[in-house]
Design a protein that fits this description.
Length: 473
Amino acid sequence: MKNRSRIFVLPVQVIFFLVLIPLMGACDGNGGKAALAIENVTVIDAVNGVRDHQRVVIDGDEIVSVSAMAVEVSARETIDGTGQFLIPGLWDMHVHFLYDNELSEVMAPMFLKYGITSVRDTGGEIERLVDLRTRIDVSGAPAPRIFLSGPLLDGKFVVYDGALPAQPKLGTGVPDVESARQKVRELKAAGADFIKIYELIQPDVYSALVEEARLLDMPVASHVPLMMTADSAGPMADSMEHLRNLELACAENWEELLAVRQTQIGAFVEGRGYELRRGLHSLQRIPAINAYDETRCNLVLDALGNTIQVPTLRLNTVGMLIPDSRIGWADAIKILPVEVQNRWLSELSQLKSGLPEADHTFAMWSMFLVSRLQERGVPIGAGTDTPIGWGIPGYSLHTELEMLVNAGLSETQALYAATVQPARFFGLEKEMGQIQAGMRADLVLLDADPLLNITNTRRIRGVVSKGQWLRTR
């Protein structure tokens, strides 16, 4: 991977759509007035429901009051929210700043354009990620809150080992218990906020990673390791990603499939982790889905009652619902660097014309499984895996919300998945995810009601990020 410049520069296309109104700090001699008030607005959050004709007052990075318009409160800046709707700032629970070098430096402000005020980066070199986050903070440029896991913690063989340009170095190997514990300690010291466990990890190493993370008060995100099942690994983690490998656990013949998988991994002594994982998925994914057993799957899902599932439906269905056919795609892609636009458009053209039609079994299974998760009370979080699979930063989260609703969530539940659940993952639900006094000042002002139609989350008038008001149009 190429070394990036250490100077953080806002690209022209980002400056074009972000016009910042700077806000002063609280109580600085202007008669004790708060910095900003959004007035006569309909306030919506997934915990407190709908409150009409409200005034939301912000000072610094804090919501200081939410009250009816009849309550007099003065502020130095006011925004007329008549006929508009205010929701908490959105999260994308699954992004990769370092997956595409052409996007690493420009993703942060793209998220804000689409109302994503917090993101969870779920895999990349920790030194580069911490450097990127620090440079953004020092620059003073508007940016989302960025939470980092550092590298994917993989086994002796590493899936994303960086051996090929199309497969960047996102992972690192932790082949034994001691190296696992040491790596978690190193990540904590380097600035990681949580850890991310990947698919070629051994069961004893998985347990050691989780134990060490608990000692250091670090949440755990995880794929289902190929040597384990979702109902054995999942309860140890705080979130699981992509719904991958749940199909094996839900199969009638899951024990047979797992034994085959474990044997092949044990016999693998030379080669690339990427090929090992891909081969096992190709061999077992569709047969496992075809062997679905509802009684068995209910037991699996019930074991995941405290583990947030991040389905990334946007990614799982990318071969079935081609991105350039989605709402607003043609305009959204224009915010990307020209080189990335051209590359993606060429790749999508090849996908549609030059390749055989993809098998949509896993895409349809993913949509079905989300409905089952909802039925069984399994918590669901919103994430996209941006920019993998032509995922435009920010834009893709709204596609994910739409697909969650299409899969069976209500609009309120989809908002919960993108506001409260991510905060819960970090133990921040008393600070983020609601529009209440004492919460952090991350908000999105909409021109239409998202509870009538979740696609209205796209109709953004402006964003409040860390107390700063940003007009997006």
